[in-house]
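Record type: ASSEMBLY
Status: queued
Input:
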Amino acid sequence: MIDHRAHADGNISSNRLDLKLIADMIPKGSRVLDIGCGTGELLNILVRDRNVSGHGLELSQSGVNACVARGLSVVQGDADKDLSYYPSSGFDFVILSQTLQATQRPQDVLEEMARIGKKLIISIPNFGHWRVRLDLLLRGRMPETKTLNSQWYNTANIHLCTLLDFVDLATLVGLKVDSHIMVHKNKIQQSKSQISALDNLRAELGVFVLSPTLS
Amino acid sequence: MTEVSSNINQTHVFNGITLALDGGGALTAPHIAYRTYGALNAARSNAVLVCHALTGDQHVLGQNPITQKMGWWETMVGPDKPIDTNKYFVICQNVIGGCAGSSGPASINEDTGQPYGLEFPVLTIGDMVRAQKLLIDELGIPDLFCVIGGSMGGMQTLQWAAAHGDRVFSAIPIATAARHSSQNIAFHEVGRQAIMADPNWRGGAYYDQEEKPSKGLAVARMAAHVTYLSESALHRKFGRNLQDRDALGYGFDADFQIESYLRHQGMSFVERFDANSYLYITRAMDYFDIAADHGGKLAEAFKGSTCRFCVVSFSSDWLFPTHESVNIVRALSAAGADVSFVDIESDKGHDAFLLDEPEMFKTLRGFIDSCAIARGLTASGDAT
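Status: finished
Output:
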């Protein structure tokens, strides 16, 4: 997992629009776990403005220390290994923002999240975006975009997917998409209907709200 | 109830009170030596209990009357320090079994009129914490804003949270473990055997003798001291440097600086510490295993806890390695507790918690300040 959130001065940086969208979805007083919380940008806003009981898990020690220094409840840990220690249905919301593609076993991570959270909020950089497709088609090179800006050999994003791919996996592990937000060029489109092939082509980023279905 | 005033350095005698002990024994009229710093607020809600380590004492700040040295945690506690004595009422008690004024093996046994020696009952960390609770009750403090300690002090901190969770608002266990490891029991046993092998130990009955088991205690301290450091810190500090000589001596004098340093550590330790106390306190640490008291499940010990935890470890600590803290953190997460965890990058080994570690101060300041806001001790605008 990579620390995506370089600055955490209380305002959400413009290139992480998904954090703002996520913050707006959390009702006041909720119990929240932010997986891959970086330096605590989102958690800080949730705790400060929304009176949320906020908890974080972050891989990088520098991120953890920054979070704790600003008074956030954050532990050093790995989404691939440490989610199993959390109690079932222990959180109202479990958040994973632009991190699933960097985990070793996305399916296991999703299953653990479905176990510990009553609702999940997950944002995904869309590998099905037209620019990505065009890059590979015309240049014959691994795509590089604003959200996916590393080389293939040094990227932390080892499990990239398109938004439709993600919905498939979510369904497979027994998650239901309650709503989703598509983001392209900082334009936001909220919908409760299914994601279309056009969405999957146009969106740079998808933010999903999911609930575990009773199995 | 004792009148609470600031900056006390005294011993309270709990006359008429018998403390039942985990090992089946009892301690009658226990003495608790303690020191306080700062002032208790009107709501009695700003008390911080600092728990000392194996060879520590109640002299957190200010001059220690025995050693004449300054307090052992001047870096962490004091005006404008992370535990700010301008804001908090800080209490530190000498543990029972110790030798800085609280009841211990060197105390007089009222039944015989002689020092206890090995007649003193064997103790646990739980016993130490129950004794501390006597004083907290005596001072009329309903609940502690924070309990903090490193090493054995961290064990006491965890014990407070596990056994008296309703009396602890926040807990900071540093460089510690929820149970003493086999390796650590082994090191303690080496130290105890060194003491008991000293002919001056006399089965613990040496208090009326001219000669004390100083050699054994010094060896115990030397062995233990190595475990408090790290290979890289030793190398950085001493390397293979020679002590007061240009060439190897081809004998068994202290050729190397590290030998001279350890001998000094051993010799200065025996001037301030009682050999029998060393036996009793190391034993209490060996017996420490919170999970064992809760059906083998550590998370059970903290179930339903409303306490806020900040667990701290150091990357080069091989006595209480980071994975021991991870173990605690996982149990706290499983219990649904409010937990933060920082592993501080340092090459100073276990002793790092006593030293100048800016990253530790920075993170703990943030944690304590946020707890103060949640407790209503500080307005939220005052933090950061």
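Annotation: The mean pLDDT of chain B is 95.
Annotation: The interface with chain A takes residues 308, 310-311, 329-331, 333-336, 338-345, 359, 362-363, 365-367, 369-370, 373, 383-384 of chain B (CB under 8 Å).
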